[in-house]
Amino acid sequence: MSSNVDAIVVGGGQSGLAAAHHLTHAGLQATVLEAGPEPVGSWPHYYDSLTLFSPARYSSLPGRPFPGDPDHYPDRDEVVEYLRDYATHLSADIRTDIRVTTATPDSTGFAVHTDTGEVFTAPLLIAATGGFGNPHRPDLPGRDRFVGTVMHAADYRTPARFADHHVVVVGAGNSAVQIAVELAETAATVTLAARRPPKVVAQQAFGRDIHYWFTRTGLDTAPVGRFVERPPTVPIFDTGHYKSALAAGRPAVRPMFTGLDTESAHWPDGTTTPVQTVITATGYRPDLGWLTGLGALTTDGAPRHREGLSTTHPGLGYLGLEWQRSLSSASLRGVGRDAARLVTRLARTPVSVRGSAEWPGTSGSRLGRR
């Protein structure tokens, strides 16, 4: 069974929905393919207490403001409900419970194969699958000897099961600090281990949320993504709660452990502490394995692109990548801008070169910023 449309969007989270909005407004027939049961991306799978660090006024997708007090910080379930509602107002054909397995070249451009057996073809293809399905799990020294639990932040939900554990949280970003502080507020003993101390930044500056200043100064939209070889760790935006907790040693902050043993962690100062659980809050990588056969990725699975536009396949684009174009590219507040620009550029792709192996006059080995 086969379906032909103008554009296929793989992924029905915030990036895919933003892409669908701009595609349909450009007069293109778009089909969104989402592996989950509804078009809300991975938001329902994040930990229960997750809260955005950008206010609602800065956390909207194109054409539909985030509801409620513009200055409140939406929680996970509010984001899920917002995306669910957003999808109902789109004109795109949104298919759920359908997982893309691979994409191949086709006479029209691309053929997208799915686990249901249905094949979709289109001259334009947008990969908006995010990274939740591909958490980065670092190779921890001594992991093979450790008999406790090692898990990624993607698998963490609530602190209840860790009440009597000594937990080591690995990382220095927002998720690492949020999870470590939440655990430390229970009966758990918690250590935050990182190669660099977490950077805590005041949520408010001169009476305004920091995102006001990001917007006012242009920092949020500055097109510097192509120059960022290694995305820096985003600082922890804080109203004072995290700073106080860290200062009180709940959690304790230590340099990264040198190794794990059967039931303990060894630290650079020569000390050893018992450990039952290690949680790695070490981020995600683009979940693009379905593009491997197309030859659009580097050997380590990263997309070959420039500001979201494929440098290997005309008509192929990416959305929701960290630092794709700017600081805000992978966020609710920024993906709409990237989607507008990407759709405009994809729509200009000459029909005569769609589906070819590379851009005219461009070497297939020439990469974007990755």
Task: Give your account of this protein's structure.
- The protein has two domains: 2-134 and 284-353, FAD/NAD(P)-binding domain, CATH 3.50.50; 149-199 and 235-280, FAD/NAD(P)-binding domain (3-Layer(bba) Sandwich), CATH 3.50.50.
- 18% of the residues lie in helices and 22% in strands.
- It contains six helices and 23 strands.
- The strands form seven sheets. The protein has a five-stranded parallel sheet, covered by helices on one side. Strands 9-20-10-11-16 form a five-stranded parallel sheet, with helices on one face. A four-stranded mixed sheet has the order 1-7-6-5, with no helix packed on it.
- The longest helix has 16 residues, at 332-347.
- Residues 352-370 have low confidence and may be disordered.
What's the layout of helices and strands?
Elements: E1 2-4, E2 7-10, H1 14-25, E3 30-33, H2 76-88, E4 93-95, E5 100-106, E6 109-114, E7 119-122, E8 124-127, E9 149-152, E10 166-170, H3 174-184, E11 189-194, E12 200-202, E13 204-205, E14 208-209, H4 210-217, E15 236-238, H5 241-247, E16 252-255, E17 259-260, E18 264-266, E19 272-274, E20 277-280, E21 305-306, E22 309-310, E23 316-318, H6 332-347
Helix pairs in contact: 1-6
Sequence stretches where pLDDT stays below 50 over 5 or more residues:
352-370
Work out the helicity level. 10-25%
Our estimate of the beta-strand percent is: 15-25%
**How many domains make up the 3D coordinates?**
2
**End-to-end separation:** 36 Å
For the largest beta-sheet, the strand count, sense and barrel status come to: 5 strands, parallel
On the 0 to 100 scale, the average pLDDT is: 91
The CATH fourth-level homologous superfamily of the largest domain: FAD/NAD(P)-binding domain
Number of helices: 6
Radius of gyration: 22 Å
User: What name does the CATH topology of the largest domain carry?
Assistant: FAD/NAD(P)-binding domain
Shape: globular
CATH architecture call of the largest domain: 3-Layer(bba) Sandwich
Class computed from helices, strands and strand pairing: alpha/beta
